[in-house]
Design brief:
Number of strands: 22
Bound molecules: adenosine-5'-diphosphate, magnesium ion
Radius of gyration: 31 Å
Strand content: 15-25%
Strand order of the largest sheet: 5-4-3-6-2-1-7-8
Shape: elongated
Largest sheet: 8 strands, mixed
Length: 594
């Protein structure tokens, strides 16, 4: 007896709907994207019971005429493409023409729509595969309500999570849409209460500040970068080194305004934060990538949540480098603003408490003043006990870098400095790393080297040796004389003086790793990034470590070398080199001040 029979079109559509609609958030996404595709500048979203009871989207977009309003629920009905070839240049969110058909198959839909400028609108009720249309008089735009999701597919309904969980997914999606469209005026009502109201903004940073709680917003840094050759730009906002979350839910990537999840992009972002925030913590960020649509494939996932890049490395590298340098610049800027290690002298000895001291002038500004024009008096202001002042402070009164006293080393890790504003702590490793990095970067051709009495032999796999052999000149340019030795060894005959006692095995292995990682990037960029990374790594290896005892002279030298560095407020990885415990805060802790 034959067993095969054809499913009714409606049953087949209910099954197919599962590809597009698995849970309420998928419906929300499709409806919001339709509104955006219709050119809406204002969208309101209403959710009830986690979207299980109601999802309603009201937009002020183009609207539809009656015929389109009926047709839009048919399978493969779309106004957005005519052939698959157009996918390579598509800029709309939708293109498959299956969202509304799927949604209508598994819920009760009411659509009210009116074209811009039309005199009459339409109301459509779609349920159980039947559609009824009648005239109506809604405002211009489209108002679509999706009720009782999966009321007719109990097998799916039972997989829906509780209200809070579904709502959380929806708010995350709504955030992503807002971030991708800063100019959009957006409102979200959850169970009849206004949850988010976002008037139009002109950039992502402002949008982030608007969406995220005040504390996050204060820690946001603007990022902007481009690889013009490859036609990729990124812009957005990332949290600084003082802010982190315990999960990845604060990380958003948009590609051509489309919210995507892509593991590699996340990894690139986290690499940019390497050593800046603790392991297992995550930043808050929104990075919008703009790329030629022909260089991505958005059609790899049924719900278009994942995309594939033709050349993922380019984008990843751009993200990683931009994040790293934005963090580094930010730390420098912030510390410069808050602190003035080597602060200029105050006019006369202040009788007033420290908080009456005018805000410190940044070192960059003071350096522009010739000594004789400086309006500042030469005395080290608060020094009622002159023996606290560094011995030569009086000799070079106008030189601001003498305006501190080295207290000593703390925990064999920090150098303590007394200055007018408070107690300044320098992280000896981070500071030394910065100093050496600048030296390696600026003077790498003239860096003093030393011939090793006992050359170092580094053993590595033969295929790694083949990989690194063409790049040994990079080491040579940094004062490391290295060459192949036999079929699986390298011999190092001389190194920069600072590295003479450092085992270089790990450094070589790291370089091999970078070559493996980066080999798709163009030559010039590759070599630039290798130089930078090698300099940072050499600096890290050669720098004094936490736990190293330092003499007073060594500390003095470190502090004055640090002062000479242009980016002295952060190490090459973006960690701060120093921090101020302000006198004001100390006094507050001792309740001398309020
Ligand atoms: P797709 O978005 O892939 O084209 P959908 O099923 O989501 O498919 O929508 C079908 C069609 O209905 C769209 O191509 C569009 O023409 C029309 N449409 C849907 N939503 C709206 C809206 N909010 N405003 C105007 N037109 C819409
Ligand atoms: Mg659509």
């Amino acid at each position: 007896m034959s067993k095969i029979h054809q499913l009714s079109p409606h049953e087949a559509q209910k099954i197919a709907a599962g590809q597009v609609v698995e849970r309420p958030v998928n419906v929300v996404k499709e409806l919001l994207e339709n509104a955006l595709d219709a050119g809406a500048t204002s969208i309101s979203l209403y959710i009830q019971d986690g979207g299980k009871k109601l999802i309603q989207v009201i937009d002020n977009g183009y609207g539809m005429d009656r015929q389109d309003a009926k047709r839009c629920f048919e399978k493969h009905a779309t106004s957005k493409i005519r052939s698959v070839d157009e996918l390579t240049t598509i800029t709309s969110f939708g293109f498959r023409g299956e969202a509304l058909a799927s949604i209508a198959a598994v819920s009760k839909v009411t659509l009210l729509t009116k074209e811009q400028g039309a005199t009459e609108g339409t109301r459509i009720d779609a349920q159980e595969g039947t559609i009824s249309a009648k005239p109506a008089a809604p405002p211009e735009g489209t108002n679509i309500s999706v009720s009782d999701l999966f009321y007719n597919v109990p097998a799916r309904a039972k997989f829906l999570k509780k209200r809070e969980t579904e709502t959380r997914h929806i708010t995350q999606m709504a955030q992503a849409i807002c971030l991708g469209h800063p100019k959009l005026h957006f409102q979200l009502f959850i169970d009849d209460r206004l949850f988010v109201s976002c008037p139009s903004q002109d950039n992502i940073l402002k949008r982030c500040a608007q969406l995220w709680e005040k504390n996050t917003a204060r820690h946001l840094i603007d990022v902007n970068a481009a690889n013009n050759q490859r036609g990729v730009t990124i812009c957005g906002a990332i949290s600084d080194h003082q802010w982190f979350r315990y999960d990845r839910n604060g990380i958003f990537f948009l590609v051509n305004n489309r919210w995507v999840s892509n593991y590699q992009l996340g990894q690139a972002l986290l690499k940019g934060y390497n050593n800046v925030i603790p392991h297992g913590r995550y930043p808050t960020s929104c990075i919008a990538i703009t790329i030629d649509p022909s260089l991505i494939d958005i059609n790899t996932h049924p719900r278009k949540q994942e995309i594939t890049f033709a050349n993922p490395r380019i984008v990843q590298q751009l993200i990683q480098d931009t994040v790293r340098s934005a963090l580094e610049t930010n730390v420098s800027k912030q510390i410069k603003k808050n602190i003035s290690l080597y602060q200029p002298e105050m006019p006369d000895i202040p009788a007033a408490p420290f908080e009456h001291i005018p805000h410190p002038i940044s070192i960059a500004e003071t350096q522009k003043l010739p000594a004789e024009q400086t309006p500042l008096a030469p005395n080290y202001a608060p020094a009622s006990k002159q023996d606290n002042v560094t011995p030569d402070a009086g000799d070079m009164p106008t030189s601001p870098e003498n305006n501190y006293r080295l207290v000593g080393q703390f925990g064999k890790t920090y150098i303590l400095i007394e200055q007018q504003e408070g107690l300044y702590l320098i992280d000896q490793h981070a500071a030394h790393e910065r100093i050496l990095y600048e030296q390696f970067a600026n003077r790498f051709e003239k860096i003093p080297t030393i011939k090793l009495m006992f050359p170092q032999l580094v053993t590595c796999k033969q295929q790694d040796l083949d990989l690194i052999a063409p790049h040994l000149n990079i080491f040579q340019q940094h004062g490391i004389a290295i060459e192949p030795f036999g079929k699986d060894q390298l011999i190092i005959q001389s190194t920069p003086v600072h590295l003479k006692d450092v085992q270089l095995q790990e450094l070589i292995q790291q370089v091999i790793g970078w070559i493996k990682d980066d080999n798709q990037i163009d030559q010039e960029q590759f070599s630039k990034s290798m130089h930078n990374k090698l300099q940072a790594q050499m600096a890290c290896k050669a720098a004094v470590k936490a736990g190293d005892s330092l003499t007073h002279e060594q500390m003095q030298e470190l502090v004055s070398d640090l002062h000479a560095c242009p980016n002295r407020f952060s190490c090459p990885h973006g960690r701060p080199t120093g921090w101020l415990l302000s006198l004001h805060d100390i006094e507050k802790m001792f309740r001398r001040k309020t």
